[in-house]
Specification:
Strand order of the largest sheet: 1-2-3-4
Structural class: mainly alpha
Order of helices and strands: EHHHHHHHHHHHHHHHEEEHHHHHH
Largest sheet: 4 strands, antiparallel
Number of helices: 21
Distance between the termini: 68 Å
Number of strands: 4
Length: about 550
């Protein structure tokens, strides 16, 4: 690394060099790994509620149309979020990025928005943990009933609450997977994405096969509600309330925005063309699967006693069905390994917020943040950091490690062996620097990674978050309740309003102030679409939230 005087790889007595191994500093992600990471965040247990959403909104026309529209809006919001992040700090193709969801929000809407966005991301991860715990309990029901046969005198719906035995089985799995939620990062689980997609595809194929047997098999002719499968298809919902019931499920299925920037930080050679291909291929791959399982699963309602499907379509199949048993086990394994992917981001967000509250930063600019990645000089008294441009840098604004990607590279071997922290590189490299003790005190006062480096706090907060979610799940009867509340409010804010609003604040308005270069028509249309999403999704969020609250707490 060159110094200000042009010397290469030589530490002068008046410099402090922030240095990490090339493997940890360079971008390692490929298009394939990035796509699997996003798909594993986006596609999961929520897809099992899509058959219900299709049935409510019209599985032959309005349901697929709404899903496609939501998918297109999701793709645009992801592009908007990345454009806002790049406007804040243009990416270096050779060095991994340092942007984060909350840093983009802070630059767009002010410093207080950082804490709001942190809280929103933590809440989304928490409620997703609740939803996955409910789903895990549903998936394990056949095993629980086989080990602890239910009483023949008690109907599953007599109490209106989940059975104690089912909750205990779920909590046992939660206990077994708890150590994984205390990991420093998700490096050990980076291969789960491909296995997750394979298991979900396997389950989707099982559901489609049983649905085809239901509608075309002669053995099911006596139990079908409609003799012809065309007669069971619906094109539009019977009421506007059904659209409000289905829309949050569509929204939740495309939720991956809090993980988009960390994945982009790791993507190798993040040119606009490669990033565009990544976003487009990821969104359309998920959308294709959703259309498949949504329509196929909704058509199985033709053979259910009620003539419809439940919020978790697997509950409509016999527990002793061997084909669906395989699918249940595959998805249960995937859901179990997905818990760390939800708990760890929530835990780290909480710890980052705690660190900022204890040591409030002084609103760094993108140039200050970038300066911390280069050579940083200390004056003769060891009391100030200065970048190569001579700019004074507050050490508390060195937040690179606080925004570690969800699937980060391996930590330094020295850190693993000795338990030291990467901030220890911020120490004088020569005894000739005066005021060494004062310099160390300044760095210790910065304390940017105090919360995360605390083993006790890290483990304790992870356990509290995980088990709090599991405790809430014990009182939730159906998973569609979680997706309704999550998709109607939090997911719309984090997935659509904040990304498009950040784009308008950081990119669109900046382009509008530049009168020297006229914007092309495509860019004008893009800006108008971002505004349209903000304007249309805001009242829609209010309607869906009110409908979800009514259905959850007041509906008869």
């Amino acid at each position: 690394m060159s110094t200000e005087n042009g010397d290469a790889d030589e530490a002068t007595p008046s410099s402090v060099v922030v240095r990490e191994e090339e493997g940890a500093e360079s971008r390692q992600g490929t298009i394939t790994s990035a796509r699997f990471n996003l798909l594993s965040t986006m596609v999961g247990g929520g897809s099992l509620s899509l058959p219900l959403a299709f049935h409510q909104s019209g599985n032959a026309f309005m349901g697929p149309l709404l899903l496609i529209l939501v998918g297109l809006c999701s793709e645009l919001s992801i592009r908007s979020l990345l454009a806002a992040a790049n406007a804040r700090s243009p990416p270096e193709h050779s060095r991994k990025g340092t942007a984060s969801f909350e840093s983009v929000t802070s630059d767009a809407f002010g410093p207080k928005a950082r804490y709001v966005s942190m809280g929103l991301v933590a809440l989304i991860c928490f409620f997703a943990t609740v939803g996955y715990a409910v789903l895990l309990r549903d998936l394990l029901e056949p095993i629980t009933d086989a080990l602890i046969p239910p009483s023949p005198d008690v109907s599953p719906d007599d109490t209106g609450k989940p059975k104690l035995a089912h909750n205990l089985t779920m909590l046992l799995v939660v206990l077994l997977v708890t150590p994984l939620t205390t990991l420093n990062n998700l490096t050990a689980l980076e291969k789960v994405g491909a296995a997750s997609m394979l298991s979900v595809l396997t389950l989707g194929a099982c559901v489609a096969y049983r649905s085809a047997q239901c509608n075309f098999g002669a053995a099911n002719a006596d139990i079908r509600h409609s003799a012809s499968w065309e007669d069971y298809m619906t094109f539009v919902p019977t009421s506007f309330g059904q659209v409000l019931d289905a829309f949050p499920i569509f929204i939740s299925c495309f939720m991956c925005h809090y993980n988009v920037i960390p994945v982009h930080n790791e993507l190798r050679n993040p040119t606009p063309a490669r990033v565009s291909y990544l976003v487009r291929s990821t969104t359309w791959a998920a959308m294709s699967f959703y259309l498949f399982i949504g329509f196929a699963g909704s058509m199985y309602g033709n053979c259910t006693p009620s003539g419809t499907v439940q919020g978790n379509v697997l509950l409509d199949f016999d527990e002793d069905d061997p084909l669906l048993g395989v699918g249940r086990l595959c998805l249960a394994f995937t859901v179990t390994l997905a818990f760390p992917m939800l708990v760890i981001p929530a835990r780290d967000t909480f710890l980052r917020a705690l660190s900022f509250l204890r040591h409030p930063p002084t609103t760094p600019s993108s140039n200050q943040t970038q300066a911390t990645l280069d050579t940083i000089h200390v004056d003769s008294h060891g009391s100030q950091f200065r970048s190569q441009s001579g700019q004074v840098v507050d050490p508390r604004n060195i937040d690179k490690d606080l925004f570690e990607p969800l699937l980060s590279p391996e930590e330094k071997q020295q850190d693993e062996e000795t338990g030291t922290d990467s901030t220890e590189s911020l120490v004088p490299v020569s005894d000739e620097v005066d005021g060494g003790d004062e310099m160390v005190n300044v760095i210790q006062m910065a304390g940017v990674e105090e919360a995360i480096s605390s083993r006790t706090l890290r483990i304790g907060s992870a356990i509290v978050i995980f088990w709090s979610g599991a405790a809430v799940a014990c009182s939730v009867k159906s998973i569609d309740v979680v997706w309704d509340l999550l998709g109607s409010s939090l997911s719309i804010i984090v997935g659509w309003l904040i990304p498009c609003g950040s784009y308008i604040a950081l990119v669109s308005r900046r382009e509008g102030l530049d009168d020297t270069t006229p914007l092309p028509l495509s860019q004008k249309l893009y800006n108008m679409t971002a505004w349209a999403i903000v304007i249309s999704f805001t009242p829609l969020m209010i309607l869906c939230t009110g409908n979800a609250v009514y259905n959850t707490f007041f509906a008869p």
